[in-house]
Design brief:
Elements lengths: L6 H15 L4 H8 L6 H22 L21 H33 L12 H4 L4 H21 L3 H28 L10 H31 L8
Length: about 240
C-alpha cells in the first residue's frame, strides 16, 4: 500500500497525465489542414471540450478505487468467457498501432531530412518526390531501426503504465509545454534565465519542474516494478 501512494508514484502518475494531454499537439496539424483557418479557435475550443470531457468521464466511470492500469477495471467473466477483456485488448492494440504508425513515420521523415544531405541528397520538400526514390534502402533502414528501438524499449519496460509515464516525461511535457515557452521567448527576444514575461516564464519553470518530477517518478516506478513484478524482457 505504501508503494502505491508514495510521492514518486504520484510523480509518475503526473507524467502519465502529461502523456495524455500531449496528443493535443495533433490539433496544430489539424489546423494546418483546415480550409478556413479563421475557424481554428472555435474548433480548438470544441476539441478541448470533448477531449477533456472524455477524460473526466473515464475518471468518473472508473470508480473511487481505480486500478493502476485502467484496463484491469474491465471485469472478468470467468476462465473461458472474457470476451469483454479481449474486445478491450483489441481496441487498445488498435490505439497503440495507429499511434505508432503515425508517430514513427513522422520521426523517420524527420531523421531522413537530417541524414539526406550526408548522402548527397536534397532535403527540401520541393525535390523530395524526385530525390527520395533512390533512398528507399535508407528509408527501410530508418524504419527498421525505429521499429527495433521501439521493441527493445517496450520489452525493457514491460509495464504499460511505466512506459506511458516515461514517454510523457521525456517527450510530451517538453513538446507541449517546455518547447512552446522557449520558442516564444526566443522570438520575443527574451532571455531564458531572465524573469521577464510572466506568462512564458511561469510556463517555462512549470514545464521544467513537471518534466524533472515526472522523469524521476517514472524511473523510480520502473525500478520498483522491475524489483517486485518482473525484470526487463521477462516473459512471466
Amino acid at each position: 500500500m505504501n508503494e502505491t501512494i508514495s510521492p514518486l508514484r504520484k510523480f509518475a502518475a503526473l507524467s502519465s497525465i502529461g502523456y495524455a494531454v500531449g496528443s493535443q499537439k495533433l490539433l496544430l496539424n489539424i489546423r494546418h489542414e483546415m480550409v478556413n483557418r479563421n475557424d481554428s479557435t472555435k474548433s480548438l475550443c470544441i476539441a478541448l471540450l470533448v477531449f477533456g470531457g472524455a477524460y473526466i468521464s473515464v475518471v468518473q466511470l472508473s470508480g473511487p478505487n481505480p486500478p493502476s492500469f485502467l484496463f484491469d477495471a474491465i471485469r472478468r467473466n470467468g476462465e473461458n468467457n472474457n470476451w469483454n477483456r479481449r474486445l478491450g485488448g483489441f481496441f487498445l492494440w488498435v490505439h497503440v498501432s495507429v499511434s505508432y504508425a503515425i508517430n514513427s513515420q513522422a520521426l523517420c521523415s524527420s531523421i531522413n531530412r537530417l541524414v539526406t544531405p550526408m548522402f548527397g541528397g536534397v532535403a527540401n520538400e520541393q525535390n523530395s518526390i524526385n530525390h527520395n526514390r533512390p533512398s528507399s534502402v535508407r528509408w527501410g533502414i530508418l524504419t527498421l531501426v525505429v521499429a527495433m528501438s521501439s521493441y527493445l524499449i517496450a520489452n525493457a519496460v514491460p509495464f504499460f503504465k511505466d512506459l506511458v509515464s516515461l514517454i510523457g516525461a521525456l517527450t510530451s511535457v517538453p513538446l507541449t509545454l517546455l518547447l512552446p515557452a522557449i520558442l516564444y521567448r526566443k522570438i520575443t527576444n527574451q532571455k531564458l534565465c531572465e524573469c521577464t514575461g510572466f506568462a512564458s516564464y511561469s510556463l517555462l519553470i512549470f514545464a521544467l519542474v513537471f518534466m524533472i518530477c515526472g522523469l524521476v517518478g517514472a524511473m523510480s516506478s520502473i525500478e520498483l516494478d522491475w524489483k517486485h513484478h518482473g525484470s526487463p524482457f521477462a516473459c512471466d
